[in-house]
Amino acid sequence: MAGRFSRSLELVRASWSVVKADKELLWFPVISAVALFLVVGSFVIPMATLGGFTSATTPEPGAGMSLVALAFYVVAYFIGLFFNTALVGAAMIRLDGGDPTVRDGLHIAWSRVGRILGYACIAATVGLLLQALEERVGWVGRIVVGLIGVAWTLATFLVVPILVTRDVGPVDAVKESATLLKETWGENIIGSVGLGLVFGLAYFALAVASILAIVLGIQAQVAALALTAVLLALAAFVLLATLHSTMQGVYSAALYRHATHAGAPAQGFSPELLQQAFRPKG
Predict the structure, then answer these.
(1) Whole-model pTM?
(2) Does position 121 have pLDDT exceeding 90, yes or no?
(3) Cβ–Cβ contacts within 10 Å for residue 220, how many?
(4) Which residues are 189's β-sheet partners?
(5) Is residue 233 scored above 90 in pLDDT?
(6) For residue 187, what pLDDT band results from cuts at 50, 70 and 90?
(7) Rounded distance, CA 48 to CA 76, Å?
(8) Taking each helix axis from N to C terminus, what angle separates 191-219 and 223-260, rounded to the nearest 10 degrees?
(9) What average pLDDT is seen over the chain?
(10) pLDDT in tens, 201-219
(11) Could you give the dihedral angle defined by the CA atoms of residues 159, 151, 200 and 109, in that order, rounded to the nearest 10 degrees?
């Protein structure tokens, strides 16, 4: 456990060194979040106006509502994938020693917009199917569906870097991602979990500190103090989530380079660290 946590810290430091060298990478999750917020509003407001959330006479959604849900999922996945592709593309340039701009990343993503849309349709369909299954099975079934979801996440871990670097379609990208995962690292993924562990601890610490600050403000009957604590907590969570998303994208780019060009230099990541992060099966 101590060794894994130590590697987790090293992975965070390595990813942070790349982000620190090119802070423009942080803009991609921010733009993605703003775009997703606008899309959610474009779906929620018309549905609320038309009473789509208040009908109690139809326990099961009709075909029209299902199509709307699928369209929303596809658009939401597309936005996330588009800006993640831009992030990974810019990160690839940085890992090669270049100095990417936001425009460079967006250009890479736009040149692959068709493939991104295709993969968004696949990912949205899988997500909806898993959600539908989870709602119709017992707790044992939910565990099984959860494991299927984890397997899908692991199998598609490298899809975005593949779409960035290879001239392949979304289906072939999924197949290649699963093959690379199986042949190169097997099933023991420490790197992604490591980043999640470190940031999970950071989220927990921030939540505890925020709650304490808000409670103190309420007990002191100082509304301004409580409101300030809430606003600072929200800003800190947004900043932490942005950093987490950016570093995850940088890390996936570095790992793909290691998978396809083992030993190739990647700014901020030593070959030894990458080999320890994703160990072969067996």
Answers:
(1) 0.82
(2) yes
(3) 10
(4) 278
(5) no
(6) very low
(7) 19
(8) 180
(9) 80
(10) 889 998 898 888 888 878 8
(11) 10
**pLDDT confidence of residue 95:** 85
Cα separation of 110 and 105, whole Å? Answer: 9
Give 265's contacts (C-beta < 8 A, 6+ positions apart).
none
C-alpha dist (Å) from residue 69 to 113, 124, 149, 152, 174: 22, 10, 19, 21, 24
Distance set, CA 14 to CA 19, 84, 168, 247 (Å): 9, 19, 29, 9
Which position has the token pair 């709307």?
68
Tens digits of residue pLDDT in 42-51: 777 766 665 5
Look up tokens 């993640």; give the residue.
Answer: 84
d(CA 9, CA 6): 5
Task: Output the CA–CA distances (angstroms, integers) from residue 191 to 152, 154, 170, in the order listed.
Answer: 17, 12, 24
113: tokens are: 């917009």
Rounded to the nearest angstrom, the gap between the alpha carbon of residue 43 and the centroid of all alpha carbons in its chain is 22
Find out whether 157 and 187 touch, Cβ atoms under 8 Å.
Answer: no
Both tokens of 97, joined, read 């020693």
Q: Is 131 exposed, middle or buried (0-12, 13-18, 19+ CB in 10 A)?
A: middle
Closest CA to 250 of 32, 33, 82, 93: 93
